[in-house]
Design a protein that fits this description.
The complex is a heterodimer of chains A (86) and B (237). Chain A is an alpha+beta fold and 86 residues long. Chain A has helices at residues 34-42, 49-59, 64-80, and strands at 2-3, 7-12, 15-20, 30-32, 84-85. Helix content of chain A is 43%, strand content 22%. In chain A, strands 2-3-4 form a three-stranded antiparallel beta sheet. In chain A, helix 2 (49-59) packs across helix 3. Chain B is an alpha+beta fold and 237 residues long. Classes of the chains: A alpha+beta (86), B alpha+beta (237).
Chain lengths: 86, 237
């Protein structure tokens, strides 16, 4: 899975925001916190849940349980907004 | 083919119909500089409008397409467009932005009533905004909407308020991220990634410099008195 084509991540006014570009059927702006930016960038290339889990655990001092929960929640948000290409 | 200077950008254009032809007259330019682009309604564009807007009205297509080309070019020159009514009071620009029909022009007309010859409309629909050496200016352009109110001027922006209707009048400063979201909702988002990045860079600079407010108001003169009272005291960083 990865982020669909046509989304631009950029830092604006000290926030990380994502907007659609190109012919993407999405009208809005998303803000990402630090962790979300990290996960978003992992998804800029084709990856898997397990590989993301490994990177997440290596980067952050959290339990496997918390990481799994947070990652799943994040992916679900992207999925619901039609941003995830699976 | 004529040369025009719009928002301090030299362009060439051959307007044929109203409203573009009469509206662009005050922007005619006889300087020597090379134009940054030629603005024209192509056959391909006509076909696109015919298909998507179900119209054969060339004067409307000309007006819409030339505006679209200009405002897209503006992104490459430290600028962006905002769907707003821009009024000048004592040489400072106050912009009021909102979705169509909310009351932007109504609010700025209250300014004209209140300030009389200290005030005039810079652009009643789509002021061009540009960052020139760290100062943000609002410009008149030939594309100024239904009322056709515009002047060929550049005025430093004192503040921008996003308007919503309510029974009572209230104004507050917006957080930076709220301001970014509001501006994005009232500008044209390019389909090209590079231009989109330029737009976001401009918005980033803008919200860090110019005070941005949320104004909920009715259509009474007091609404304009309140917005002016607060916005005229705002600090440009």
């Amino acid at each position: 899975m990865k982020i669909k084509e046509g989304f631009l991540l950029k830092q604006v006014a000290d926030h990380h925001i994502v907007i659609p570009v190109g012919s993407v059927d999405f009208d809005g702006m998303i803000t990402l916190n630090e962790t979300a930016v990290f996960l978003w960038e992992l998804l800029s290339a084709e990856t898997t849940f397990d590989r993301m889990m490994d990177a997440f655990l290596e980067e952050y001092q959290v339990s496997r349980e918390v990481a799994e929960r947070d990652l799943a929640a994040f992916l679900e948000k992207l999925r619901a907004a039609g941003i995830l290409d699976e | 083919m004529n040369k025009y200077k719009i928002a301090d950008l030299t362009v060439t254009m051959s307007p044929m119909h109203s409203p573009l032809l009469p509206q662009s007259e005050t922007y005619l330019w006889h300087g020597e500089e090379e134009p940054v682009c030629h603005i024209a309604l192509t056959e391909r564009a006509k076909a696109w409008y015919a298909e998507h807007y179900h119209t054969n009205d060339e004067s409307l297509m000309e007006y819409m397409e030339t505006g679209a080309i200009f405002y897209q070019k503006l992104l490459e020159h430290q600028g962006f467009l905002l769907h707003a009514s821009a009024v000048c009071v004592d040489h400072k620009a106050y912009l009021f932005s909102a979705p169509s029909g909310t009351g932007k022009s109504t609010h700025t007309s209250l300014y004209l009533q209140n300030f009389r010859n200290r005030a005039y409309i810079i652009n009643d629909d789509k002021p061009a905004i540009r960052n020139l050496n760290g100062t943000f200016y609002a410009y008149g352009t030939p594309w100024s909407g239904k009322t056709r109110l515009n002047r060929n001027v550049s005025v430093p922006i004192q503040g921008i308020a996003f308007l919503s209707r309510s029974e009572t009048n209230d104004i507050r400063r917006m957080s930076d991220i709220e301001a970014v979201s509001s501006i994005l909702s009232q500008t044209i988002r390019p389909r090209n990634k590079l231009l989109a990045e330029l737009l976001l860079e401009r918005i980033d600079e803008f919200v860090k410099k110019v005070p941005i407010y949320s104004l909920s108001c009715n259509m009474q003169p007091n609404a304009a008195i309140l917005s002016y009272e607060v916005m005229s005291k705002g600090e440009i960083k």
